[in-house]
Amino acid sequence: MTLTIRPAEPERLPDFAGVVDGIDLREPISAQTAAAIGAGMDKFAVLIFHDQHINDEQQLAFSRHFGPLEQANADIRRPEDRRLASEVADISNLNRNNEIMSRDDRRRLFSLGNMLWHSDSSFKPTPAKYSLLHARIIPGKGGNTEFADMRAAYDNLDDETREMCRDLVCMHSQIYSRGTLGFSEWTEDELARNQPVPQRLVRRHPGSGRRSLFLSAHAGEIVGWPMPEARAFLRDLNEHATQRRFVFAQEWRVGDLVMWDNRCMMHRARRYNPGEVRELHRTTVADSAPTLAQAA
Fold it and tell me: Is residue 178 within 8 Å of 190, Cβ to Cβ?
């Protein structure tokens, strides 16, 4: 098979979200194939691999071609509650016994933060590079994932706003994102693990050279700004960056694997019937360094 990558929506989004054909992720891939996928990520930022009926071991093997993997420790599940391996994030509404969590389950309420526009692990000192999400069980309706192109959002800022953003540093924490939803009951250990970390607001992508906004629901402060002014400015930026002209919607089907570049886009999950199972497994490739240590 010959690997090819084509735009998912060639007329509307010619350089955002690509569909990959000619690959079976159940089989090992070569360094040459991994490099071709990396080049595709530099161009499209989101890649969709349809009909990939893989297990966690195969997903992990594929993910490791792109760098060291994060530990899946960003949620509030206790170790004894986890269903999956330490490097596989459980993006589901299931408990350890594979039963649907109750609507008021604290773990489920925390996971609703995934429905806010965000960049994975921006709340960690070294945030995420790539995320790879594989669909195992999909509800009958809803539950799509939307992706917003932060490169296009940056390119379409007016000159004054672009200059204002250029050197700003934001503080990111899950405390901010979950606080937006009214989630405020934290243990002392959870608070200690979620202290705000600084991230650049504008990043230059090392592969494409394009600049982008580094926005996220986790961003709750701008260094040196009064809090109300910072929150208002970040809200304006998020409204600009998530206009429909910048957004691609992934309509999941079982076997889809979607890979995205957290350095230059945001994403969010959409609502679905909480009485139906939605199970996806995510592996996450860590970035090379904190954003403040990277070239501006």
Answer: no
Q: Which CATH number fits domain 4-293: 2.60.40.1930, 3.40.720.10, 3.40.50.11810, 3.60.130.10?
A: 3.60.130.10
**Chain segment 166-223, per-residue pLDDT in tens:** 999 999 999 999 999 999 989 999 999 999 999 999 999 999 999 999 999 999 999 9
Distance between CA 116 and CA 135 in Å, rounded? Answer: 20
Partners of 257 in beta bridges: 49, 134
Residue type, 19: V
Q: Which residues contact 243 (CB under 8 A, 6 or more apart)?
A: 153
Q: What is the pLDDT of residues 94-110, one digit of tens each?
A: 999 999 999 999 999 99
Mapped onto helix, strand or coil, the DSSP state of residue 88 is coil
Tokens of 48: 């969709």
DSSP state of 142: B
Element (H or E) spanning 213, and its range?
strand 211-213
Give the helix/strand (H/E) hosting 182.
none
Evaluate whether 262 touches 123 at the Cβ level (below 8 Å): no
Question: Contact at 8 Å (CB) between 260 and 283?
Answer: no
Average pLDDT (270-291) is 97
Q: Give the whole-angstrom CA distance, residue 84 versus residue 156.
A: 41
Q: Is 196 exposed, middle or buried (0-12, 13-18, 19+ CB in 10 A)?
A: middle
**Spatial contact of 230 and 164, defined as CB atoms under 8 Å apart:** no
Distance CA 234, CA 171 (A): 11
Q: What pLDDT, on a 0 to 100 scale, did the predictor assign at position 107? A: 94
Pairing of strands 46-49, 13-21: parallel
- Residue 18 near residue 47 (C-beta atoms within 8 A): yes
Q: What is the pLDDT of residues 85-94, one digit of tens each?
A: 999 999 999 9
CA 216 to CA 121: how far, in whole Å? 10
